[in-house]
Amino acid sequence: MKIDVKTTCKYCEKPTIRTIPKRKKLKPDQKYYFTYYYKCTDYPKCRGIFHVEEAKVWVD
User: Fold this and answer.
1) What are the domain boundaries of the chain?
2) What does the alpha-carbon distance between residue 56 and residue 18 come to, in Å, rounded to a whole number?
């Protein structure tokens, strides 16, 4: 796990972890997916998950 200090949780202001999701089969009408997302380090109390535009990949 790599803690990203630059990105903080918008709910509790704690650092976040950059997480890579498992690759699943794309749905037929799916237009994009995310290569990573940020998850709050204070997991039991805060369940903040944040998708960023830099991680968005458009499907042809």
Assistant:
1) 3-58
2) 14
Q: How many other CB atoms are found less than 10 A from the CB of residue 38? A: 21
- Characterize the bridge pairing of strands 15-19 and 32-34: unpaired
- 9's tokens: 């949780």
Chain segment 37-60, per-residue pLDDT in tens:
999 999 889 999 999 999 999 998
The pTM of this model reads: 0.78
53, 35 contact by CB (below 8 A): no
- Per DSSP, the residues of 33-51 read EES-EEEES-TTT---EE-
